[in-house]
Task: inverse folding
């Protein structure tokens, strides 16, 4: 609804003052004490509010996720530990995946839409790739995984190319020299989302080498998210997939 | 065409050996001496080969762009100087835009598709924003520009929000603290592509501050391209727009 | 007292040689062995000597804080562990807050002055925000807390704006892209003190992204303190508040 | 005016729809083509919109500053070149100071308020110190300058201490090791704003050494602005001074 | 000759004291005033002394290269400008290549040995690739050039693979994401020497991205030299080629 | 076999479609679930596939190494922990060296070829030097070790010089200021491979100082691998040694 | 003895071949397996070989220190843990100081020479300051300690100035903004050796801020050693003190 | 004179109030408008006030140097351009050296004291070495120059060792990998002052590689000054030399 329409409706007595404030100023969150839980974020941004668990106490996570579940019936927590999971009340129906470190409260089954290809360079990149894949599935996208396809044995990548090229978006997960998105960007039409990982050592500087490489990709059409940020890549890919 | 089909066709004498090599190994470029010009890149990646002019001599740019125009009837050169432009043969029909530093050889008019919103933070970001906007238009997307909407006066952004939210993709161009993509990512459904610019001084470190800020956006769904890389953002946005 | 007056008074025999040295050369500390405790710092700088506990042994902290309490009746220790607290003699009457990691020996109640608004971006920034809030209260300022107001859901910030704009100073605590001070600086008259936090991961580089973003704020009127330095922000805000 | 009051007034027909939008959504800027000029910024943030000239063409600066002068009768341009100044229409009545690189369009004389002390470490820091001093004067504060007081000859600082300690705020400008704010912070009650400068060479890294030093000041109560950002320091100091 | 043998020969009067000092202590240079020219370096290190011209005056370069030519009949100057070249006496018989910035004084023709493959990613990398190729030829190696084979169109690389795999060493020159050495290292037996170039912009940081990428290559068998250091790569490749 | 020959043979029915795909597209790996094990890598790159254990679970390492042993009879795991080793089935016949952190499954004895000299600067560099030495031995090279030869006592290096100068390649392992490769490069004909180590503290920045020093060696002919990457250095040295 | 004299003496049969090698080539070390212990280092460099224990096993430290004690009767180990100390044989007569982390095997008492002033900024810098002080005493210098004299309370420094100004060298130990050496360098004649410490947090970056500040000291006459390197500062100060 | 004695003398009427202020508070400078010229610095710090010309206008330099000459009869300006020199009044009797970029106003001849050895690695380091050498001579030390002695041909260094080892201090000037101070520190008793230079390119990062290498020298007894800071090294060396 456009701003003018809202004010007209209010002047005409059709909507309340609270409604005006909710729509125009976004007063849609619930104050859960340590956090303000935003019940309209999915409507506004295409995805629900997700709880970044790192740096929060288990108790805080429990309060916030319960509030979200109460409202949406579904919830996602990232960078979670077993302790965060344990603090959740059983009635949440949450599940914890130690590889991707996700807490998932899934709602009723929905048909997955479109296709997102998650391609990773090496086995050590698996936790980040799984964070991406499981997040995208939680959000409602169909996901295909192609792991251990790094450029040191580039034929492995070619062998899966047929299945990648018709995805809505490609998530390319790589550490070390982070060359995977460049090679994919030069071979495939779908937009490529690069996820640098902190896999490697020494002059890798916790993922900086892969990050810089992806930022400087000679193949255009590559967008980059933060180091080890599988979640962010999935969120972006899902937004793109929504458009298909 | 799948690999098996190609080989079967070859065994059956339906296609030549050269055709097999072209399809399977991608032998589709023309060697222009200083460069190997790739005539199938658009087919393969969704966009044509684009000439990055920086670091190339005017003569090299002239040779390469002429070769591309000969094949595709259209061509784009980025980071070009007036000297690069001057070296092009007149029959190319090229135009040079000193703000965006693009050389454009446009082909016959085509209807623009979809919508890409290019939003910039300040007037000083204009050259990068224009590189993005003009590139996207060259690729075939419809573009809407919303300039000078930085977060220091955030109401300016709100006033254009109505027009932004139904784009296929949002390109957010910002220097200094680079907060624009985060704010947009929290308010709009379309995928956001952040372009950090080198606008600022001191601890800006030629765009590093904006780059890091965008990589660390607290709003998910933001992909980042290189500093001042309006071209790359447009290429990615166009790929996403193609899907609409 | 001006320098000339001091020397005149001394020449006139009105003050002692020790008094001259105390005033002109600042010889006001007590040597506590491992540290020189400064009994006039509050008089000189507007705030008492505060003990930075990190890197000190519990025994050293106990000696120094006891000396301060003996003189001022009040004391503050920052970055303290439980072990530091345990080493303090019971008669100090100290309290320990594990969230903000402060040891506080509070004196007789005093009326709080003015108003400092402490605004934080996310729940994970809470320890730093609390270090700031509790320090400012210890120093004598009245504090209002507004937590979880980050720019990814910027309407949460707007909903508390009415209460922020008449503070003497605003402390804005944020990690990740650190955009909060910029948005506040564009919307409010009070001086804004940015506190970057190390909340985030990857290209956050332990708070560097937020630090650089705040240094490059496009909204003028933002001063920045060290990463996670809630204490320093409170001290500065209190100095400003003293002026009201 | 509080949000509820605005809506009540609107519902009662006392204010227009446009007025509601202006107050609630901040629709107060004028679109000058290349920029959106914000006519209410001073009301909202305590200082007028200031034009950062670097990266803007002289023509853009002329358009924007003229628009501001038309509305406010006064204007300030920072990081300006002679060419920027030359592009301004004569009727603006602007003056250009090549040392501080400021373009100033001053309005009718106003009494200067309070006191801001600008202290600089060396003669080479003078351009930044003058940017700070002249900006603060433009904003309406009274300024006292104390230049060439660096810590390599710390007695020079002591000799001016008497005049510094009763300022509303101290702006401490220093390059190289940037120790000046720490020494001032340990000796004076007023809040200290550190401005690192790019003066120095080698491992100075264009001001990084001074920036880091000031961020890590062992004296609390120091807020830091960007390298060479005399303007930002003045804006912050003026906000503090306003409170006196 | 082993140390013991030298001393025995000296004790036996077979060699002079000067000879002992020359062999044991390496006293083999000629002091040319501003430099000590080393006449035995080729014997000792497998390659002649080469003059790094950057930072030297034309006069210094002329003195040093003349001294080398006098002794060896051949000389190489790197990072040279036209001004350096102009200062050389005509009888040197030097030639200057403005692309590679080399000054070459070539001696009598010698048969080139072995094979070094110089592979570059893009046309903008040509100056560095030519510095490598021409240096290797000067040192006596046979060189094959394969330019514009970057990973954004990886099929271009495959088409030349047949010719690369039997070289003694591969020099891989690439800027931007610097992925070329990794791909080559996974496909070919010869040792790969990566040369990061400063081609690119923004987060390329003058070649840092390519440097880090090559250091972190997931394909083992890649040694890296300094950014833009075609000369160093050629020297190393030639040493390897000598072994064939 | 050249591409044309492969297709001719296929057209002539001499080889199967699978064979064409194996040779032309490199479809030679086995999908082991979490990884794609490449059975032809040694044939293609001169060395076998090696398992980088860091970031992989013991179970993943066990699966991958077993698959490699099954195919090649030999296997190498780097950066392995005792837990990785314990997960291997006993029939692998693996051995674990806690100093170099290598898991080695050695095959039937083979005569070692050539000579690689491994020279290290200090005793603390021993783990990296041993990773290099043992890897080179595993690959089939003969290795000579010269440890504790750093430049702070440069005569120690001279005393072993006689034995170093006829190696096929020199691996120079050093932390701190990383000067060893420069000194060796100026004294010896064989190619020098520098391995910076993270030995040191403070401004060493985990090996960055040694890395930068080696990249900037004033002695040409030095190739550098990643910090602490003894394995990579050995792989490169072995490739060079193969050529002797 | 000059080189010529050595060879003459050898030719004249006055000294043996081994003696020539010892003097000219420095063959003076003992190969202790994991290390080459240098028995003439004190003669050559003014201080004995010192064992850097970090990264060495306790067994290695025991072997090396025993070898040194056997030869010199005295030994020093830095960065040692209790475990390193425990591995030493009792007859060494070693002592361990957990604050400075030094293992000291002191010989017969010698009169201390000259005077070195060790000045530190805060109590948290004490471990580094003690490493410096105890090392200097071990080497034979007389040491005066002045701790907790940081610039946040600069009068504490003035009160000890009288005792500092006649030292042979001043060691200034400081973390955070590292301003102490600059202030000392502007007030005192003796050479100042700055030791940046890693004390601090956030943008301190483990001592980088103090390191850069000291490198950029506006007071000339300051030499800087590595972060936390009290040992190195003491060694340098002792060398200077030897000259008095 | 001790503080107590000063005050006693004042109380006894033996010295004036101004004298007390001069001695106790260091009020010894002359305010030259843009700078405060310190006439007692030599007395206090062992060297005169020196003018750092970079960033100062020619007029400012002229005013300051004239004031110094007036008082001391001698003056030194560093980092000066020809324009700075031209602005000086002829009666100053100044000389300008374009290599070292020093302006020198020398007083009556004095006998040079002691010996400082200035050793440089390459010819490109000459400007920095000369800044050091000429500054030390200006201050009154005798200087010996040994240029082009870098570690790539380490025998060149050995050939001059006999002359270096009895200096009061060694200034070691080197760019690139900056290994010279480490080698010197392992071979010579005098204290070594390392001066990293910005000579080099690529990963040299304007001298950072040499700076870090010198900070991490494995030879103790090395103090480091800023990149290209020949002046600072000379000042420190002269202070050490004064002690001889």
Result:
């Amino acid at each position: 609804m456009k701003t003018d329409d809202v004010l007209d409706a209010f002047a005409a007595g059709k909507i309340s003052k609270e409604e005006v404030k909710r729509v125009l100023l976004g007063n849609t969150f619930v104050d859960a004490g340590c956090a303000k839980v935003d019940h309209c974020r999915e409507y506004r941004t295409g995805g629900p509010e997700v709880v970044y668990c790192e740096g929060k106490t288990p108790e805080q996570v429990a309060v916030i996720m319960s509030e979200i579940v109460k409202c949406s019936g579904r919830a996602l927590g990232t960078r979670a530990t077993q302790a965060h999971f344990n603090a959740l009340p059983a009635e949440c129906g949450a599940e914890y995946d130690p590889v991707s470190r996700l807490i998932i409260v899934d709602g009723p089954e929905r048909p997955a839409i479109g296709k997102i290809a998650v391609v990773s360079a090496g086995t050590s990149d698996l936790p980040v790739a799984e964070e991406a894949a499981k997040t995208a599935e939680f959000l409602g996208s169909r996901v295909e995984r192609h792991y251990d396809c790094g450029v040191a044995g580039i034929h492995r990548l070619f062998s899966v190319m047929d299945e990648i090229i018709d995805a809505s978006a490609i998530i390319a997960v790589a550490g070390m020299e982070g060359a995977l998105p460049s090679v994919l960007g030069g071979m495939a039409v779908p937009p490529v989302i690069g996820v640098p990982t902190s896999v490697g050592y020494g002059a890798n500087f916790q993922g900086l080498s892969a990050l810089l490489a992806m930022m400087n990709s000679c193949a255009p059409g590559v967008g980059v998210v933060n180091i080890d940020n599988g979640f962010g890549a999935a969120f972006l890919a899902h937004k793109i997939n929504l458009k298909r």
